Amino acid sequence: MRQKAGRRKGMQVTDDRINAIDIRNAVKRYGDFTALKTISLSIRDNEFFTLLGPSGCGKTTLLRMIAGFEDVTEGEIFLFGDEIEKLPPNRRPINTVFQNYALFPMMTILDNVAFGLEMKGESKAAARKRAGEMLELVQLSQFSSRKPSQLSGGQQQRVALARALAPSPKVLLLDEPLSALDLKLRQAMRFELKELQRETGITFIFVTHDQEEALTMSDRIAVMSAGELQQLGDARDIYERPSNMFVADFIGETNLLEVEVDAVEAGRAQVHLGGGHQLSVDAVEGVGKGAKVHMSVRPERLYLSEGAEGPESLAGTVRANMFVGTDIQTLLDLDGGVQISVRSSNSERGNKRVFEPGQIAHINMEQGAARLLAD
Ligand SMILES: Nc1ncnc2c1ncn2[C@@H]1O[C@H](COP(=O)(O)OP(=O)(O)OP(=O)(O)O)[C@@H](O)[C@H]1O
């Protein structure tokens, strides 16, 4: 039945199920400033989906449009096949968890979670029973009679989650919910959030500017910049196969090297770097002979050796080594003003050969490590 409705409206259907959210050609303008420029994307049912991008890229605006707190200037938003962009927020089966947990300070934890249910017309007894179940889900049952100020920041955020999940929304929106927590707690909460999403089966749409958070939790990630969608994919796609300069640079650390393409044949591109160093890399669509583009190579996909380990080894002079705890980062200068960063694991099994500043080392690439970028 639902599927038919989706098809009738021309919605995209994934694995024979209607998407939780379909955003079609959505534009948001504030006066003459365009915060979102024609965004189209689909979020699958039961997915942990993340909107990732730097401050001001429009991710909160998009989230607020889904929630109904912000009008859509142009375009359409569908929830399980039904058009919702004209519905007021309280008519959408969607809930939001904010960065500041916004708990009622005078109420107990149990009452905080039950409050929204009672407002929706549930009996006090039913609301309290459901609130109790939700507190069990976030492992806070033992604190149900405490007040919010008697809980840690992480515990308060879990109460806010329990409260948002209590009415069984079809979609839960999470606007940087971990950013008020300290680093250790934030890391622990990543696993909890992911578990919670799996257990409840509710579609989560998570907003963050923290790429590590996005990579660790998400089924898929939409990378945004300046009101535009830059890339949509799973964590490995966007980390290992960035589609452009912005994504390569924003996600993790990378070497962005200027190259010129000398030839393209049988799926391989022959390129050269500034100092004339030649390399053969996977070709990408839209980058042909004569193109001057950037190539992205992750530092951890490079390793150093004394002698050349193949025709594509590049010789460089070590400028500095930096101890980064888990890794050792080595910066090297190549001819032609090219600089390359290499990361070696600081472990018994890792690359323990440390070259001293001034020494010549050969830089070798793991297969498939270099990625040409179309723009
Ligand atoms: N009410 C408003 N009026 C005018 N401009 C706005 C309004 N709300 C947001 N903007 C602008 O729209 C752009 C996107 O804002 P948005 O809050 O969506 O960014 P964001 O990616 O969530 O950033 P952050 O991570 O800092 O929250 C910004 O340039 C912002 O200044």
TrEMBL record:
The answer to whether the entry has keyword Cell membrane is yes
What GO terms are given for molecular function? Answer: ABC-type polyamine transporter activity; ATP binding; ATP hydrolysis activity
Gene Ontology terms describing biological process: putrescine transport
Q: What is its EC number?
A: 7.6.2.11
Matching entries from Gene3D superfamilies are given as: 2.40.50.100, P-loop containing nucleotide triphosphate hydrolases (3.40.50.300)
Where is each ABC transporter domain found?
A: 21-251
- Keyword set, alphabetical order: ATP-binding, Cell membrane, Membrane, Nucleotide-binding, Translocase, Transport
UniProt cross-references to Pfam families, sorted A to Z: ABC_tran (PF00005), TOBE_2 (PF08402)
Q: Which reaction does it catalyse?
A: ATP + H2O + polyamine-[polyamine-binding protein]Side 1 = ADP + phosphate + polyamineSide 2 + [polyamine-binding protein]Side 1
Cellular component GO terms, alphabetically? ATP-binding cassette (ABC) transporter complex
UniProt cross-references to InterPro entries, sorted A to Z: AAA+_ATPase, ABC_SmlMolc_Importer, ABC_transporter-like_ATP-bd, ABC_transporter-like_CS, Mo/tungstate-bd_C_term_dom, P-loop_NTPase, PotA-like, Transp-assoc_OB_typ2
Superkingdom as given in the UniProt entry: Bacteria
Q: Which family does it belong to?
A: Belongs to the ABC transporter superfamily. Spermidine/putrescine importer (TC 3.A.1.11.1) family.
What's the subunit arrangement here?
The complex is composed of two ATP-binding proteins (PotA), two transmembrane proteins (PotB and PotC) and a solute-binding protein (PotD).
> What role does this protein play?
Part of the ABC transporter complex PotABCD involved in spermidine/putrescine import. Responsible for energy coupling to the transport system.
**Can you say what this protein is called?**
Spermidine/putrescine import ATP-binding protein PotA
Origin organism of this chain?
A: Roseovarius nubinhibens (strain ATCC BAA-591 / DSM 15170 / ISM)
